[in-house]
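Sharing a chain and its predicted structure for anyone who wants a worked example. Both blocks are below, sequence first, tokens second.
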Amino acid sequence: MAITDYALALCALLGTLLIPFCAMYHVLRLKRRAIKVTATRSDCR
């Protein structure tokens, strides 16, 4: 019983830490893509 409680707590902790990092990663990817798009557009002018 103690092992399953420990495993559940660990999974919950990793899940709560993983969600913000995934969101931050996607935001940074979108920003990087937007910077690349603006850089290529400014080169065309």
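Comments welcome. The chain has one helix and no strands.
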